[in-house]
C-alpha cells in the first residue's frame, strides 16, 4: 500500500532553497512520546531519525508547482 500527502507552501518561505535547482531533498517527521520524564518512544515517517540520526534513510520531499 502507498499513500501521498500534499502540502502547499509559498516558495518564498523555502529560501534559500531554490526548487528550480533542487527538485527534491531528504525529509522526515518524528513525534516523540515524552511526558517530562524522558522519551518513552516515538513514531516517525521513515527510519533514520528516532533511533539514529542518519539522513540516508529519509524519504523524499519533492518540490512541484
Task: Describe, in plain words, how this protein is organized in 3D.
With 65 residues, the protein is mainly beta. It has a domain at 26-65. The protein has no helices and 4 strands. A two-stranded antiparallel ribbon has the order 1-4. A two-stranded antiparallel ribbon has the order 2-3.
What's this entry about, in short?
By secondary structure, the protein is mainly β. 0% of the residues lie in helices and 29% in strands.
Which secondary structure elements does this structure contain, and how are they paired or packed?
Blueprint: E1 24-27, E2 30-34, E3 39-44, E4 59-62
Antiparallel strand pairs: 1-4, 2-3
Please give the order of strands in the largest beta sheet.
Answer: 1-4
Using only C-alpha atoms, the radius of gyration works out to 15 Å
Total strands: the figure is: 4
Total helical elements: 0
* Amino- and carboxy-terminal Cα gap: 26 Å
Query: What is the overall silhouette?
Result: elongated
Structural class: mainly beta
Uncertain runs are none
Q: β content, as a range?
A: 25-35%
Provide the succession of SSEs: EEEE
Largest sheet report: 2 strands, antiparallel
Overall pLDDT score: 88
User: Which percent bin holds the helix content?
Assistant: under 10%
Give the key terms.
65 residues; mainly beta; two-stranded antiparallel sheet; 0% helix; 29% strand
Amino acid at each position: 500500500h502507498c499513500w501521498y500527502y500534499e502540502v502547499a507552501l509559498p516558495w518564498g518561505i523555502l529560501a534559500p532553497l531554490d526548487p528550480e535547482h533542487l527538485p527534491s531533498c531528504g525529509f522526515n517527521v518524528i513525534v516523540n512520546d515524552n511526558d517530562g520524564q524522558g522519551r518513552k518512544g516515538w513514531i516517525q515517517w521513515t527510519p533514520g531519525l528516532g533511533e539514529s540520526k542518519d539522513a540516508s534513510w529519509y524519504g523524499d520531499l519533492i518540490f512541484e508547482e
